[in-house]
Amino acid sequence: MKTLALVNQKGGCGKTTTAVNLAGALAVRGERVLLVDLDPQAHATMALSVCVEPGERSIADVLLRGTSLGEVVRAARGGIALVPATLELGELEEAAGRTLHPERLLSQALSEVELDYDYALLDCPPRADGVLTANALRAADVAVLVIEMGAFALQGALKAEAVFAELAGDMDARFELRAVGTLFDRHAALARELLIGTQARFGARLFDSVIHQSGRLREAAASGQPVQILDPACRAARDFQALAEEVCALWSPVPLHT
Ligand SMILES: Nc1ncnc2c1ncn2[C@@H]1O[C@H](COP(=O)(O)OP(=O)(O)OP(=O)(O)O)[C@@H](O)[C@H]1O
Ligand SMILES: [Mg+2]
């Protein structure tokens, strides 16, 4: 199982949209995908119209009470296996003070299901300093910095890059940092310049695929399904299919030229 965390301390930059629709695109390719909602806001859970009723379990049970992760997985739209979140997940910050190595809880829980899935995607909250993001970074093979192609995007991305690199050092984590541009408006000169600047700064670590601004993505979230189900032929669905192809290629052996 390959694990990717969608990160950025900036709010509203497209982490959840990327997590849900990249999961949908990987599932279309026949990959077995686990999406873990690591945000107490539970937006990924809502974007797949999963409800956690009183008495039902969520990621909070896994991280706070040691419930096995496999017991919490729900079958969601688009062939995605979802580990849902609830507001209760916010309690982990306080509980972490009473736990030895609280940042290792998720990677331990994920190791139980590593033969069941090809990819695990972790949707992180908009902060770099909390125990939830620390758990995601500790578990991740790749941390994908989600960059909104708007004003101050590059400054924000560089700051985030430095913060996550420092965290990796502090935590002795082994993830590789990559980046993806999103909310891209190809008609806006500023967005085009920003994309070029981001490419220059991140080089090969920036995925070639860029996610365009698309009303379809908002509609998909509002209707509780990945865009691949709502409208598989639309631009946003194709953007995420291209990103999924690049993600899979990260782990494919490079063909040898003779
Ligand atoms: N490419 C896009 N085109 C149009 N709307 C988008 C796109 N990406 C995200 N959005 C919209 O922007 C808003 C914020 O996106 P999203 O929830 O994915 O961000 P986030 O980084 O997860 O936010 P938070 O930091 O609060 O977790 C949502 O309303 C979402 O539908
Ligand atoms: Mg989010």
Provide structural commentary.
The chain contains 11 helices and 7 strands. Helix 7 (153-171) links the parallel strand 6 (142-148) and strand 7 (176-182). Helix 1 crosses helix 11 and helix 5 packs across helix 6 (131-139). A 7-stranded mixed β-sheet has the order 3-4-2-5-1-6-7, sandwiched between helices. By secondary structure, it is an alpha/beta fold. The longest helix is centred in the middle third of the chain and has 19 residues, at 153-171. The two termini are 31 Å apart. It has a single domain, classed as Rossmann fold (3-Layer(aba) Sandwich), CATH 3.40.50. It has helices spanning 15-28, 43-47, 59-65, 92-96, 105-111, 131-139, 153-171, 189-202, 215-222, 227-230, 235-249, and strands at 2-7, 33-37, 74-76, 80-83, 119-123, 142-148, 176-182. The model has no long low-confidence stretch (mean pLDDT 95). Bound molecules: adenosine-5'-triphosphate and magnesium ion. The site of magnesium ion (MG) has 5 residues, from helix 1.
